[in-house]
Amino acid sequence: MAAHNSEYPWLSYYGNYRFFEDRMREHSKVTLVERLETGHYRLVRSSGPDLVVFICECYSFGASEYDEVIENIGPVNAVVISSNWCGYALDFKMDCMNSDVGIFTIGEFMAALNLKDFWTYLSPQQKKDLERRK
């Protein structure tokens, strides 16, 4: 469910992505940030393949939102949830990981960019949550 807009592409509340763009330009593993369209980017990394990223502001990003993204812009490598009050379920993240797609908060994505298999990044809390399930 979109936080601010009910219409795709669920624009950020303020309608811009400067925070994301600035963080990506500052990241040591990102050599180019290319805005493809609203909330849709291509990142060129210093090592590893380019990434197609969708920035989302949804209260809860899940399978139906993901399907809508794919329907509208095609395959993505990562979805970044752009606001602190929004999120996603760990089970959904795990499902996406099985398809080599990462679902992240901005902080998680910053850390994940340092990994070759970036989509496998789990926060320390997520690792604890998965361990408790065993």
Number of strands: 7
Low-confidence stretches: 1-5
Spatial extent as radius of gyration = 14 Å
Give me the secondary-structure category. Answer: alpha/beta
Instruction: Please write the string of helix (H) and strand (E) elements.
Output: HEEEEHEEHEHH
Strand order of the largest sheet: 1-2-3-5-7
Helix amount, in percent?
Answer: 25-40%
Give the tally of structural domains: 1
Average pLDDT reading: 87
> In percent terms, what proportion of residues is strand?
15-25%
Number of helices: 5
Shape: globular
Largest sheet descriptor: 5 strands, mixed
**What separation lies between the terminal Cα atoms?**
30 Å
Walk me through the topology.
Layout: H1 18-26, E1 30-37, E2 40-45, E3 51-56, E4 60-61, H2 63-73, E5 78-81, E6 87-88, H3 90-97, E7 102-105, H4 106-112, H5 124-133
Parallel strand pairs: 3-5, 4-6, 5-7
Antiparallel strand pairs: 1-2, 2-3
Which keywords apply here?
alpha/beta; 5-stranded mixed sheet; two-stranded parallel sheet; 34% helix; globular; disordered N terminus
Task: Explain what you see.
The protein has 134 residues and is an alpha/beta fold. It has one domain. The protein has 5 helices and 7 strands. Strands 1-2-3-5-7 form a 5-stranded mixed β-sheet, with helices on both faces. A two-stranded parallel sheet has the order 4-6. A hairpin with a 2-residue loop joins β1 (30-37) and β2. 28% of the residues are buried.
